[in-house]
Structures
1.
Amino acid sequence: MSLLVIGTVAYDGLETPFGVRERILGGSATYIGLSASYLTKPVHLVSVVGDDFEQTHIDMLNRHNVRTEGLEVMAGQKTFFWKGKYHLDMNSRDTLDTQLNVLEHFNPKVPDSAKNCDVLMLGNLVPAIQMSVVEQLPTRPKLVVMDTMNLWIENTPEDLRKMLKKVDVLTVNDEEARQLSGEHNLVKAARAIRAMGPKILILKKGEHGALLFGPEDEIFFAPALPLADVVDPTGAGDTFAGGFVGYLDSVGDYSFDSMKRGLMYAATMASFCVEAFGPERMMDLTEDAIRARRADFAQLIQVG
Ligand code: AMP
């Protein structure tokens, strides 16, 4: 099987109640790629960085079998930079700075080795760039999953609507679902969004888990594991998406039942991400640790 991931590769500045990092590896594609790499291979990454991007970070991605032929390094340009500060509850955050840098000129090129991917994961990016990747693929992947955010819902609604017609699964949080659909009630919001294109909607609810809405109005819930040590939620949503597509690509079964299992892997991977700053925890996971955490999840929702 094969997974193609597009999104940002970034440097982030992070402030949480547990500490500050001035400049740490980040970006939606970084988290998605790392998370998926524990569940499937190959994982192809398409993104862009500046020539300030450290080779050690590319080496780290490659060590995790994340292939970077599609990672363009733009000479004389700086890597995308984002800075966020979390509130005390760590469920909400403020964006303090966004420097698009290389993203202003990004024209993604999908390498030939990735063009026949089975699963395409469109991480958070300008919808027009997501579209240009879809248009480069000679055949439609078996599964197309997309993430987006309030910025694109507000600023480029028409491009976003066009993109929604091309995807099977959309992942958003409550607020984004309400904004996109104009419905406050989440069941109605899910119906309205599914009428826009995606057959399946995943609603991410942070520490309160995630809901999966299916084509026949089915609803499945995956909790988030209550953890004693949560230090930085950055990238949890992307890591969640990476777990979902990584699992589905590894099994090659895209049925609703398979997606339910995928949601459990998604929650498992996201539970690791929040335990350390940035993607640090996602760099040294083992199969045993993932298996044990997956078992903790099964335990959490089991009734006798
Ligand atoms: P998450 O916490 O899952 O929403 O993902 C956080 C990551 O998204 C950070 O590492 C940022 O670099 C990246 N990010 C922040 N703003 C944007 C944006 N406007 N477009 C794409 N990626 C972004």
Note: The first strand starts at residue 3 and ends at 6.
2.
Amino acid sequence: MSLRVYNSLTRQKETFVPLHEGRVHMYVCGPTVYMDAHLGHGKTYVNFDTIVRYLRYLGYRVLYVQNITDVGHMLDTGEDRMLKGAAREQRQPMEVAETYTRYYFRDMDRLHVLRPDISPRASGHIPEMIELVKRLIERGYAYEVNGSVYFDVNAWQEYGKLSGRRVEDLQAGARVEVLEEKRHPADFALWKRAEPEHIMRWPSPWGEGFPGWHLECSVMSTKYLGQPFDIHGGGVENKFPHHESEVAQAEAATGEPFARYWLHNGMLMIRGEEMHKSLGNFITLQGAFGQWDPLAIRFFILLSHYRGPLDLTEEALDAAGKGLSRLTTAARAVRRRLRGALEGEASAAVTQLVEATRARFEESMDDDFNTAGGIAALFDATREVNAMLAGDAALTRGSLEALDTLYRRLLGDVLGVLPENLEEEDTEGLAARLIDMLIDMRAELRRNRQYTEADAIRDRLAALGVQLMDGPEGTTWSLS
Ligand code: ZN
């Protein structure tokens, strides 16, 4: 079997063949760091993280670059996102960028999204961006007006090839004064002059200004991955104009193809609606982590195909959490049995189960990263594993090791949903059960009028920071 991926550029599934044997160079558009990451970010970066993990599982050496946008990304209103964040928090834009970059990685760590190999900041690549703009002007694909530089979509015949749009049909939603500067409404800014109030600004041949958002990705991807490179990923909502413009800039400047495979992931919906602050259904990852285990969220995302939209409901997420716990409980039981297991080779039944499961998992994943199919194979295997664990026949060390490796590789390395402390179980849960046990013992002592001993339990728990509250419904506790 070989890996096949759906390439948005050719609009078909293709056998994946990297440019250099054994190596994959991959770029994914990163976050604009002016606010907390939300569940939509969670879906995108879990989707692409799982793709990177599977490519590594297949033996590829993957170089994964994902940018941090800390300049140039405007809202539809023409407002600069970074400046909006700075105004909101009364801080410098770079403080805002640093804060939300750290928060972004903190949230991604909890989702088990592996850190990219390179996380280039846009603000650290201004000279390279200016060079690209100069080259585009020299080659006749860009023009300067009043200190801003625009890409000329009519000069680049292939504009629209990624998104399938035609230049004739394009009308930009830009503000009127910007529209007046452009030769065509769909022309987009490579470099923008900085108005007096604009804090983030750099000197350029066209005066003080700042780069356009699309430009960043063309520059930072090719700087670290070369041109062409293998895979470019991103959200389908950014296919146009962002990705389309990335292609145009990079290809017009060099005459070389840009990314060979374009992978687009579908959006996250909340109960059938797009997530929007205005709809009141906006959920940050921090907010979601307060309600659900981050790995259950990751597992929920992987239960559907990365290209499709994903509709989030509380019930579906709760169900995903239960499903994941069925898998991790079996994986934990296998690993615990390994302690003190009887020596011996893997049984024929276990070997066959492991091989068949691995083959089915790989077959699914080879089909454009069908994680749902891979998870179904693991559920089926787990039913058999549970029967084996409950059966009379003792499992040999060889059998347990084979099963442990299966879970470790597929559920852990590829899907990324195995907790790090699998064997310890959750110590928080254990602590809660121990406190409940002490509360029961105290109640028993009080019933026997052994108040001195009962009070000693209460006082010693208090010394550990656990406060007991006696009420009509019994005793509850809280951490002080
Ligand atoms: Zn991008």
Note: The first strand starts at residue 4 and ends at 7.
